[in-house]
Design goal:
Radius of gyration: 14 Å
CATH topology: Peptide Deformylase
Strand content: 25-35%
CATH class: Alpha Beta
Shape: globular
CATH superfamily: Peptide deformylase
Structural class: alpha+beta
Bound molecules: nickel (II) ion
Order of helices and strands: HEEEEEEEHHE
Low-confidence stretches: none
Mean pLDDT: 96
């Protein structure tokens, strides 16, 4: 098991636009494994590669019942609105509310290099939007319409 240190704001890696993955090689598979282990260890429901210092377009998510890993994820459509509290392992101690789409369709690749084309709504849709924002150097407080300290 490989648990990595999660970078926190204001680490500059979190603000970079991540590069597309050109080839799914052993290095990419190792990053995926490290991301999965780190997310579960930290009890997060999503993680983006820059959070462990890798500036590549890779995310993993698991909002409770469904582990997904997506390479080069792209949101191809959005529908509706939701606004629920969110936090981030890279922004400890803060909770915020952002305007997010209620439903998204996301395309990308899985670890085998196969096309992923997925429709998500609710919490899964929110987590996907949050993680994909990380790949463009965006942290949730940038978009929050309300932000507060998490006292717990
Ligand atoms: Ni985050």
């Amino acid at each position: 098991m490989s648990v990595y240190k999660i970078l926190t704001d204001p680490n500059p890696v979190l603000r970079q636009k991540c590069a597309e993955v050109k080839r799914i090689n052993a290095g990419v598979l190792r990053v995926l494994e490290n991301m999965r282990d780190t997310m579960y260890f930290a009890e997060g429901i999503g993680l983006a590669a820059p959070q462990i210092g890798v500036s590549k377009r890779i995310i993993v998510v698991d909002p409770g019942d469904n582990y997904l890993e997506i390479i080069n994820p792209v949101i191809v459509s959005r529908e509706g609105e939701q606004n629920r509290s969110e936090g981030c392992l890279s922004v400890p101690g803060k909770v915020g509310w952002c305007n997010r789409a209620q439903k998204v369709r996301v395309t990308g690749l899985n670890a085998l290099g196969e096309d992923v084309d997925l429709e998500a709504e609710g919490l899964l849709a929110l987590v996907l939007q949050h993680e994909i924002d990380h790949l463009d150097g965006i942290l949730f407080p940038d978009k929050a319409v309300r932000l507060r300290n998490d006292d717990f």
